[in-house]
Amino acid sequence: MTFLTWTGERLAGSRSRQRAGRVPALFAGRVGARPAPSANAGVPNTVEFRTKWQIALEQIAQLVAEGVPVAPVVADAGYGVITAFRDALTVQGIPYVVGMST
């Protein structure tokens, strides 16, 4: 699951947002044809695999679209090592602090 938590005066406290459950690649048909388990699990053919960092960027974009003030993104190395994640935040002018691994 990908969770987004934000705080701010306009929001009168803190709220957490959970959206778009992550579908394992096996069920979303990430590689080649859709495997049989996807049908057994009830996953619609329209569901595409997305990584957690892609889901996070979609959630951030939705918050920005809703007018939530931009604030720094804080993420662990699972997100920090993804150049595309950091680049997307930079392009949007969103400051970030992310973990890195060596």
N-end to C-end Cα span: 25 Å
Uncertain runs are: 11-16
Total E-strand runs:
4
3D shape = globular
Structure, described:
The protein starts with a strand and ends with a strand. It is 35% helix and 18% strand. The model is unreliable at 11-16 (pLDDT under 50). A hairpin with a 4-residue loop joins strand 1 and strand 2. The chain has helices at 25-28, 36-40, 52-65, 77-80, 83-91; strands spanning 3-8, 13-18, 73-75, 96-98. It has 102 residues and is an alpha+beta fold. The strands form two sheets. Strands 1-2 form a two-stranded antiparallel sheet. Strands 3-4 form a two-stranded parallel sheet. It has one domain (3-98). It is globular and about 40 Å long.
What features would you highlight for this structure?
5 helices, 102 residues, 4 strands, two-stranded antiparallel sheet, alpha+beta, globular, two-stranded parallel ribbon
Summarize the structure.
The protein is an alpha+beta fold and 102 residues long. Helices cover 35% and strands 18% of the residues.
Secondary structure: elements and pairs:
Elements (H helix, E strand, L loop, with lengths): L2 E6 L4 E6 L6 H4 L7 H5 L11 H14 L7 E3 L1 H4 L2 H9 L4 E3 L4
Parallel strand pairs: 3-4
Antiparallel strand pairs: 1-2
